[in-house]
Design a protein that fits this description.
CATH superfamily of the largest domain in chain A: Hexapeptide repeat proteins
Oligomer: homotrimer
Largest sheet of chain A: 11 strands, mixed
Structural class of chain A: mainly beta
Number of strands of chain A: 35
Distance between the termini of chain A: 56 Å
CATH architecture of the largest domain in chain A: 3 Solenoid
Strand content of chain A: 15-25%
Helix content of chain A: under 10%
Chain lengths: 326, 326, 326
C-alpha cells in the first residue's frame, strides 16, 4: 500500500523496531520495509495479529514478521517470525511512529499558498483559496471561497468543491462534489484509553473518494489509521454525516442527514440509510441493505435485507411490534 | 409563486416540454408559464399528480395541465389536459430543467465581492465578508467575519449574522439572528435512486425565514425543490440542527440541538422538540406539540399532544413502560 | 466567581435591583456585588432558589440575599433576606442584565485584528487569523487558517488550534488541541418559552477547558449562563459533539462522534460515551460510567455502571432483552 501523504524514514531495521518496543536486539539485523495490516502487507512488511476475526487474513498474508501477544502465539503459522508483546496495538502505534515520525500530530499545513490559477486547466475558484504543495486538480473543476486543500491531495476532473471546505490526505475521483464546510482527511479518533491518560495513536491512512460521489455540507470524514477510509463511486452523502477512520462505504449508496459510522465499519453497495442512523465500529453491512432512519446497527447485516430499530432488526417486525394508537 | 434566485427561460411552449419528455408534439402549440406544485400553480402553469395524498389539492388547483402516470389517469378531473408519463418525478425534473437550466448545479457564487459598507445603512461587519449581486440588507444589521451572502439574498432590519456563515437563495425577515457557521439555502438532498446511478434533480425553491427567528451554530437548512423551505416567526433553533428541503416549521417553535427533519415534513406552531429527535419525511406535526429528546417521529402527530420514543408515541405511556430500576 | 469576559456595571445597589423587578424600594439602600448561583455566591452577592434540588446548596450558601417565589418562602433560612417574585428565572435574567448590560447580545467581536506574531512566543499560525483584544496565548502553540479568537480568551502552552475555529469567552489549559471548525463559547440556547414570544436570557458564564484535552472537528460548546461550562483534563471529544450551557464534563473522558449534552448535565471522570448518545438536561452521570452508542440518558447514572438503550439502563439487560435473530 502506497502512502502519499506521510514521509517514511528510510532504512528501518528490525533492531530499530525491537528497540522502540523495549525488546532485545536480534543478532542478525535486517531491513523492514513498512507496517501494514495482514491483507495489505508485503513480504518485507511487518504486520500484527490480535483477534481471531482476522484468521483468514493471517493464513493468506505475505508478511513474514508478525507482532502478537501470548494468547495467539500458537495461532501464528510456523513459517512466520513472531514478535511477542503485551499490548499489540500499542506496539503497532510505536512502530508506526518509528516509520512515520510526523504522523501523530495533525497540525494545519503551514506551507499552503493562495491558489495560482495558471497551474490548473479551466479551474473556477473563489477568494482566499489556499493550496498546499503538490496538490493536483483535474480539468473543469471549481473551488469555493476560503477552501483549504493541503499538500499532495489529488482531485480528478469535473469536481466541484464548495466554500469553507478543508481537505487533507485525500484522493478524489472524477465528477465528484464536496459541499460547503466539510472536513475530509483529518486523523481519526483513535487512541488507547488509559486509566491515567488516553494515548493517541498515529494515523497514516488516507481518504479515498470515488467518482460521481456527492459529499454534503458539514460532513466529517476521518482518514484511516493504517488502512484507508473509502467512499465508493456514485455514493451520495447528505449533510452532517460523520465517517470515522477506516470506514469503507461501497458504490451507489445513499446516506441521509446526521448519519454516523464508527471506526472500521464496512458498508456494501447500493445501501440506503435513513437520517440519524448509526453504525457501530467493526460492523459489516452487506449489499442492497435498507437501514431505517434513527436505527442503531450493532451487529452485521446480511445483503438484501431491510432493518430498523435500536438495535436494528427486521424492519417489518420492528414496525409491527411498535405500532401504537396513542 | 415567484422565484427570485433562478433564471427562467422565456417563451417555453408545450411542445418544448413534450420534446424534453420524449413525447410527440401537439398540433396546437401554446405557451406554458412555469412548473409548480398543485396548490401553488396558476392557470398557465404545468403541475403534476403522483399520489392520492394530494387529492384535495388536485381538486382545487388552477393548473389546467397535469403530468401523471397510468395509475392516476382516471383520477384527474375531465377539464384538465393530461400528460401521461412513466415516471412522474423524473418528468418534473426534466421540465424544471427546461424552465431553469442552471438549477441543477449548485456551484459557489463566483460574482461575490468584498462588502462595500456605503451601500447599507448602519451595518456593522467583519473582515473578509463577501456579497453577491443584488443582495439587500436592512438597517442596523451586523455580519461577522468570513461570511458569504450570495446573489439576490434579502435580509430585513436588525438582523445579526455570525461569522463563517453561508447564505444563498434565502429571504430573511426582521430581528432575526443567524449564528456562526450555519449554511442556509443549498440544494436539497433530492434525487431518484437508480440501480446503476442516482439521478439528481433540480432545486428551484428558496428558504424563507421569518422575523424574530434564531438559527444556531452549524445548522444546515436546505432550500426547497419546487416549493420553499420555511421557518416561521419567533422560532428558535439550537446548534447542529438539520432541515431538509421543503420542510415547513411554524411560529414560535423551539428546536434543540442536533434535531433533524427529513424532506417535506411540516411542523405546526409552538412546537417544542428535544435534542437529537428526528422527524421523517412528509410527516405532519400539529400545533403545541412536545416531542421528547431522542424521539423518532414516523407518523403524523395531532395538535396539543406530547410524544416521545422511537417510534414516537404518547409520552406518559412511553415513560411508564420504560421505567427501569437498573 | 470571576467573570473575565463581560463588563460589570459598578455600584449596583439593592434598590436598582428591586426597580428592575418592578418591586418597591427598601428604605435602607446598600451595595450588591454580583449575581451568582448558591454554591458560587459570596456574602455580598445576590442568589436565587427555585427548586428543592438545590436545598443542600441553600443551606451552605454565603449569600444573604435570596430571590425565590411563594412556594419556597418557608424553605429559605431565617438569616437570609428574601426577595419574592413570581418567576424566579426571569428575575435572575433581569438582574443579570442590570449587572452585565452587554451580555444578552452575542455579536461577533468587531475589534479583532490580524495576528501579530511579535506578541507571542514561538507561535506557528496560518493566513487570515483574527485575534481580539487582550488574547493570551502560551508558548509553542499553533493556530490554523481563518481562525478567530475573540477578546480576553486565554490559551495555555503547547496548544494546537485548527483552521476555521471560533473561540470566545473561553480559558484553555496546556497541551490541548481544538480541531477544525469547532465553535466554542457562544451563548447557550437558554430562554423562557412564552406563549407569544420566547424571551432570551443573558449568558455571563465562560467555557473552561482543561489541559491535555482534545476537542474534535465541528463541535459546538456553549458557555454557561451564570456558572461555567467545563471540560476536565485529559478528556477527548470526537467530531460533531454538542455541549450545551453549564455542562460539566470530568477528567479523562472519551466522548465519541455526534454525542449531545443538554444544558446543565454533569458527567464524572473516566466516562466513555458511544456515538450519537444523548444526555438530558440537569442529569448527573457518575465516574467510570460507560454509556453505549445511541443511548438516551434521562435519569442519573451512578458511578461504575454500564448503561445502554433509550432510555438508558443496565447494558447487559438491554442487550439480552433486545437480541433478535432477524
Amino acid at each position: 500500500m502506497k502512502r502519499f501523504f506521510f514521509k517514511k524514514v528510510k532504512n528501518i531495521k528490525i533492531n530499530d523496531i525491537l528497540k522502540s518496543l523495549g525488546l532485545k536486539n536480534l543478532k542478525k539485523n535486517f531491513n523492514v520495509n513498512d507496517i501494514n495490516e495482514l491483507n495489505e502487507a508485503n513480504i518485507n512488511d511487518i504486520s500484527f495479529y490480535n483477534s481471531n476475526k482476522y484468521f483468514e487474513s493471517l493464513k493468506k498474508t505475505k508478511s513474514k514478521l508478525i507482532i502478537t501477544n501470548k494468547k495467539y502465539l500458537k495461532t501464528i503459522p510456523k513459517n512466520k517470525m513472531i514478535i511477542e508483546v503485551d499490548n499489540v496495538l500499542l506496539a503497532v502505534a510505536n512502530i508506526t511512529l518509528t516509520f512515520y515520525p510526523n504522523s501523530l500530530d495533525d497540525l494545519f499545513d503551514a506551507n499552503v499558498k493562495h491558489l495560482n490559477s495558471k497551474n490548473f486547466k479551466n479551474l473556477k475558484f473563489g477568494y482566499n483559496v489556499l493550496l498546499g504543495k503538490n496538490v493536483k486538480i483535474g480539468k473543469n473543476c471549481s473551488i469555493g471561497h476560503n477552501t483549504i486543500i493541503e499538500h499532495d491531495v489529488i482531485i480528478g476532473d469535473n469536481c466541484n468543491i464548495g466554500s469553507n471546505v478543508l481537505i487533507k490526505n485525500t484522493i478524489i475521483g472524477n465528477n465528484t462534489n464536496i459541499l460547503d464546510s466539510s472536513i475530509i482527511g483529518k486523523k481519526g479518533f483513535g487512541f488507547y484509553p488509559g486509566k491515567k491518560k488516553n494515548i493517541r495513536y498515529p494515523h497514516i491512512g488516507s481518504v479515498i473518494i470515488g467518482s460521481d460521489v456527492e459529499i454534503g455540507c458539514n460532513n466529517t470524514i476521518d482518514r484511516g489509521s493504517l488502512s484507508n477510509t473509502k467512499i465508493g463511486d456514485g455514493t451520495f452523502l447528505d449533510n452532517q454525516v460523520h465517517i470515522a477512520h477506516n470506514v469503507k462505504i461501497g458504490k451507489n449508496c445513499i446516506i441521509t442527514g446526521q448519519v454516523g459510522f464508527a471506526g472500521s465499519s464496512s458498508i456494501g453497495n447500493s445501501v440506503m440509510i435513513g437520517g440519524q442512523a448509526g453504525v457501530s465500529g467493526h460492523i459489516k453491512v452487506g449489499d442492497n441493505v435498507l437501514i431505517g432512519g434513527g436505527s442503531g446497527v450493532i451487529k452485521n447485516i446480511p445483503s438484501n435485507t431491510k432493518v430498523m430499530g435500536y438495535p436494528a432488526r427486521n424492519i417489518r417486525k420492528f414496525l409491527k411490534e411498535n405500532k401504537y394508537n396513542d
